[in-house]
Amino acid sequence: MAVLEYDHENKRLIQVCLETFGKSGVRRTVPGQYLAADPAGRCFMMASTEKNKLVYMLSRRPDGTVRPSSPHEANSWATINFAMCALDCGTDNPIFAALEVDYTELEADSTGTAYENREKILSYYTVDLGLNHVVRTWSEPVDYTANKLFAVPGGSRGPSGVIVCAKGRLYYVHDKFSSLSVQIPRRAGPLEDASRDRIIVAGILVKTPRGGGFFMLLQTDDGDLFKLTVELDEEVAEPVSLKIKYFDTVPLASYLISLRRGFLYVAAENGPTKLYNVTSLADDDDDEPDNIHESTNVSSDYTQQIQPAYFRHRGIKHLSDTDAAIPALHSLIRTKVDNILGEDSPQIIGLQGRGNESLLKLIKHGNSVHEFGAQPMGERILDNVWSLPESRENPETKLIVVSSRHGQRTEFLAVDGNNFNSLDATPFNKERATVLAANMGHSTKIQVHAKGILSVFPDGRTTDWNPPPHCTIACAAANDLQLIVGLSTGELCYFFMEDTGLLALEDRPEMSSGITALGVADTPHGRDQARFGVVGCDDNSIRVVSILKDNPLEVHSIQAVTAVPVSIVVTDMIDPASGTTVTVCHLGLASGLYLRAIIDDVTGELSQTRSRFLGTQPVHIFSAMVQGQQCVILCTSKTWIGYHHPVSGQYTVAPLDTVGLHAVAPFISENAHVGLCGVVGTELRFIEPAKLGQRFVTEEYKLRYTPRNLARHPTEGVVYVIETDGNTMSKATEASTALAQKESAPPYHDNAPLGNPRAVGHWASCIQVIDLVSPEGKGITNTYELDENESALCCAVVPFESKSSQLYFMVGTGRNMPTPGRPSSAPQGGFVRTYRILDGGKELKFLHKTEFETPIYALMPFQGKLALAVGKMISIYDLGRQHILRRSLGYSVPNFIVSLDAMGNRIVCGDVSQSVTYVVFNEDFNRFVPFCDDTIARWTTTMSMIDYDTTAGGDKFGNLWIVRCPADVSRESDEPGTNGHISNEESYLGGTPNRLECRAHFYTRDIPMSVQRTSLVPGGAEVLFWSGIQGSMGILSPFVARRDVTFFTQLELLMRQHDPSISGRDHLAYRSYYVPVRCVIDGDLIERFLELSYDKKQRIAAECERDVPDIEKKIQEMRTRVAF
């Protein structure tokens, strides 16, 4: 048990105290499942799912800290707790209310009579502050369907007590007053199930600032918000009635929070968290009187039936969306990593959500941009751009210079508001490609081209400087007052801007090889000279030189690189470790590699070098201010941005979601709008990066039902999504409903807050074809509804060898499956539906469906045929004219198969509760031979073969695991003939003859739904990518050197000691929740090293016998070489 305090200055939680109350782990009898605190802050109660409750008294010390007392037990033998809350009792002794069921008689009764007569009890537990103990003071039977409790304000605001939420009804219950009851209204509509009761899933108490009033906002499982008010008799302060009114409809929430400034925070169960502005409190009873219901004629006896109440649904009225949503990916049903767009790095295709709020998301790593204009520049290919302000005092862009080396031409555009005018008469040289254009001095503009340097002064005067004969200018770099130029002979020239113009120094030192790139540092604030410049040479080296007038172009340090430098930018940036400004050299290589190093302000030495591969083309770097922060733009096959993350402060490199620009320059409009201008092809484009810190860019496609799985066309940018919803009316049922034919129904499938029409015991399912690539036909191209009560469960694109490898889309379905909360009485079964893929994958033609005795949970292509799981059997089928035709059959798992994967002749079968089984298919004898299974019972949710012997998977308890077949067993299974003696061996302990070896095991805190071996970044190594139902995405990266394993193992151990969890949970026990963690190092814990204070970093580094920068480099490179 931890008491935490929020630190406003550092925006973090601080541990005030930590107490241990149980040492047997997280179990149903250990308190912690429920937590409620007294509104006055005097004590709090913790309860377990079963039996036990603890109360801690809180005392405040003179220094303001809060300390809990020893725990006081309030245990109830043989009881199950369903809900708990703290009553508002004013200054009286604190009271806690709990919903409980006593099962003492149920265990002793073998006839089942006690079970049929069981009761749910509302109990009050009073904390006597004087006697320092807890006692159960009152209990009352309540509706057995009760699921939630909400406290009613007491003291001067109200009568105290609780609101008990049950199925279809709300009750006000208190030991001092009579009970009240009111219906939870149901939706009125032509397609609504009039007999379906709603339940409350979330709620919040709102206290009005004026008049001391209050009301509650309660949300049903449809997402509808209701305003509940308690009407009081003012003379005796006794509640006389309950009034409930339809308020609005918002996404289904896990929690609701009311903020003081009139906002409603909705933590959605699916999708992004929403923030709404409360524009009205719905106080006018004359508004929508049909949507108001009172408890006047409703009995408070829960055993009596009541007349249901209805309301008319409408659009949002009393709330307004602030568009301040927090992006989220839960519920993430399935993911697939695939380079469907043909870019440098792959994309993540994700299925998210529930019902008609479901989405298919195409997730790309990067930062979104806003494109606000494009300017055609003729037929010449452009390769560079510069933007020049009017003067140093006025940063507004007045002149844009674009250059083309291919056509040896430079264009000059005058900026006038939103208009761009090409300058025909200009003192600049338009007949040559520009090497550099810049503002120097107060407002002098210079143009560097291959044959000279042209200076244009504010009064119109111009001066020229020409290089020596038989050489040209190869590159140049400048700041406000200093300019260095690299000649084609390998010589460096230094210039300094004075009032009379550029002053050239006579000394021209010659580099040992050709100069390919130059960079100079910005002029420091309050000084007129920068100290260092950087020279890149074609001998794969860079040199840090002095650019002071006293000792110009003196070499201070030399650094070798792996390729020819093509671009150098030197900027001043904030060092997150020390909080000081450092000089950083950004270097782009011809090989597509980006290097970043810090230049020592005194010696000029380069240190803390970081590298990252960005693309297949040379990296060109440009400096720009973005959202008030000094950033660098990196142009290669994609456009990247380098910046310091606004939250963590760490230097981050992320791609921009735009076309690959050739060059970029800052652009400031007349209304101080800061953006970027860049050239690509023959166009000049204007963009603005979105909020820095964004990690992903998504494209969303709205789905009809809850998605279950997806498959991709192997050659086209088309995916097929199967969707299924239980207790939902299908299109066929909706069309055949007599009421739907007589009345005009609301657009259920297009109105997300309203949801799909419900129908208890029914299934709705469809297949949707989505084109993710074609510019003209992007989106959902076709939707195919399945038959009534048929639910799609799995799918695959199969090339049948008997049909010349023509592609077919196969779907496994279930028939009459039990729906949530209602078992099916009809006989269950399944089908395999066959579709021919036409029109480049955008159309499906239904051929036939084959019936089976059980639902089909897994199928896949296998050696030109279809591998199919039917219960515990695995079969191979070929395509026939009217059915699929079985070619082989075999038993493989104890229960039933839920997932399949294959390599060669080997198939791995995932059992619903017994992990995985390795099966070999003997083609000569047409026989399946199970030969190896697991020793641990795992409730498999996903699995994938990493290699021929190794499988990775996840289970519903949140574990990721990797198992491997022993080498000798693997060799024996591949022996020709009847697979050696493996096929004749007896089973061992009810399983196969051999057992798999567990190579890795890790608790993820989420339920893995997808596992895939893939590469995530260009040039990166392959990793094991996984995603979970709560929206988590992660990777397992293999180590390639034993010294790295030793180092990170030691660092993980030190991080456990120096950075413990504020909640007191032991890290090793946490990651070993199901079985002990094995052969996995927690990267999330390791990366917390970057957020520690410098003192803690120093202590850890000393124990590791390394420097802090070395450890930070190791951590950052471990991520950037394989992921983002």
Automatic annotation (TrEMBL):
<feature type="domain" description="RSE1/DDB1/CPSF1 first beta-propeller">
    <location>
        <begin position="2"/>
        <end position="282"/>
    </location>
</feature>
<dbReference type="InterPro" id="IPR050358">
    <property type="entry name" value="RSE1/DDB1/CFT1"/>
</dbReference>
<dbReference type="InterPro" id="IPR015943">
    <property type="entry name" value="WD40/YVTN_repeat-like_dom_sf"/>
</dbReference>
<dbReference type="InterPro" id="IPR018846">
    <property type="entry name" value="Beta-prop_RSE1/DDB1/CPSF1_1st"/>
</dbReference>
<dbReference type="InterPro" id="IPR058543">
    <property type="entry name" value="Beta-prop_RSE1/DDB1/CPSF1_2nd"/>
</dbReference>
<dbReference type="GO" id="GO:0003676">
    <property type="term" value="F:nucleic acid binding"/>
</dbReference>
<feature type="domain" description="RSE1/DDB1/CPSF1 C-terminal">
    <location>
        <begin position="765"/>
        <end position="1090"/>
    </location>
</feature>
<dbReference type="Pfam" id="PF10433">
    <property type="entry name" value="Beta-prop_RSE1_1st"/>
</dbReference>
<keyword id="KW-0539">Nucleus</keyword>
<protein>
    <recommendedName>
        <fullName>DNA damage-binding protein 1</fullName>
    </recommendedName>
</protein>
<feature type="domain" description="RSE1/DDB1/CPSF1 second beta-propeller">
    <location>
        <begin position="383"/>
        <end position="687"/>
    </location>
</feature>
<dbReference type="Pfam" id="PF23726">
    <property type="entry name" value="Beta-prop_RSE1_2nd"/>
</dbReference>
<dbReference type="InterPro" id="IPR004871">
    <property type="entry name" value="RSE1/DDB1/CPSF1_C"/>
</dbReference>
<dbReference type="GO" id="GO:0005634">
    <property type="term" value="C:nucleus"/>
</dbReference>
<dbReference type="Pfam" id="PF03178">
    <property type="entry name" value="CPSF_A"/>
</dbReference>
